[in-house]
Amino acid sequence: MTAFPIADTHTHLWNPQRFRMHWIEGNALLNQPYELHDYNNHTPDIEIEAMVYVEVVVEPTYRLLKAQWAKRPS
User: Fold this and answer.
1) Per-residue pLDDT reduced to its tens digit, 5-40
2) If you ran DSSP here, which 8-state letter would residue 34 be given?
3) In the prediction, which pLDDT does 50 show?
4) Among 17, 50, 72, 74, which residue's beta carbon has the most beta carbons within 10 A?
5) Mean pLDDT over residues 59-64, rounded?
6) Residue 23 phi/psi, 5° resolution?
7) Where are the alpha helices (DSSP H) in the chain?
C-alpha cells in the first residue's frame, strides 16, 4: 500500500453492453465491461483519493449518457 493517497489522472471506464463502441468490437480483451467495481477490485491496496475520468469513444448518441453513467458508483 502506498504511504499516501493518490490521484489517478487517467481512468477509463466502460460497459459495451450498455453503450456501443465500434472500436472494441472483435477484441475479446477490450470488448467487456470495465466498471468502477472492477477498478476497485484491481486496486485494493491503493488509497485513491481522486480520479480523472477520460472519455472513451462511444457512438455519438450515447456520449452524454455515457458521461452520466461514469460518474455514478456501480
Assistant:
1) 999 999 999 999 999 999 999 999 999 999 989 999
2) B
3) 92
4) 74
5) 87
6) -70, -15
7) 36-42, 63-70
Q: What DSSP line would sit under 10-61, residue for residue?
A: EE--B-TTTS--GGGTT-TTTSS-B-HHHHHHH-TTS-EEEEEE------GG
Model confidence, pTM: 0.75
Per the structure block, which three cell numbers stand in for 74? 456501480
Q: For residues 65 and 15, is the Cβ–Cβ distance under 8 A?
A: no
How far apart are the C-alpha atoms of 44 and 19, rounded to whole Å?
Answer: 27
CA nearest 13: which of 58, 49, 45? 58
